[in-house]
Amino acid sequence: DGGITQSPKYLFRKEGQNVTLSCEQNLNHDAMYWYRQDPGQGLRLIYYSQIVNDFQKGDIAEGYSVSREKKESFPLTVTSAQKNPTAFYLCASSVAGTGAHEQFFGPGTRLTVL
Amino acid sequence: GENVEQHPSTLSVQEGDSAVIKCTYSDSASNYFPWYKQELGKGPQLIIDIRSNVGEKKDQRIAVTLNKTAKHFSLHITETQPEDSAVYFCAARLSNFGNEKLTFGTGTRLTIIP
Question: Which of A3, A109, B69, B70 has a CA that sits 20 to 30 A from residue A85's CA?
């Protein structure tokens, strides 16, 4: 089955700790994205990558970091510098390049910082 | 950058009636407008999309209309069913080379009353 997997589904961390969220896709997509979702708000873009070893900041990149060492993987690290990290995090992927390409979303990881 | 506004934030309709969700966008260069459905605890799924060279698109009970002059687009769901209850997000995308970012609306929670 082709798709996007995110793990874990629920994650709890103590304040001040860094935490890494996993995102893997087997759709052979070049582009991958990380979004943050808060109650009553839309999806806000954290980082995106259109090709291996390259990524760009989205609208709310402060306090987050990413890497893109493999085409199928795009892990997100929530650092201690992120002031309000508790949220639902969504990973997505798509075909890259110009044109209208559907973004496919994973099931999400709900991060709670205690 | 692009700004997308979505209304209403909540919508309740009787089963069998129609539901309409409206979005406006700010950048006239945007040319791709997807709609996503998100069920509780899951990632969003694309339900329909429209490109700027088309005024209307229909897929069974779901239709989207686009008014480029007024910079707004709408989702229409006819003959609503209980399984249509979910949160719906509109989005807009500038199709500049290398720019794959979607800007999302804040979502509409649709409740179908049996």
Answer: A3
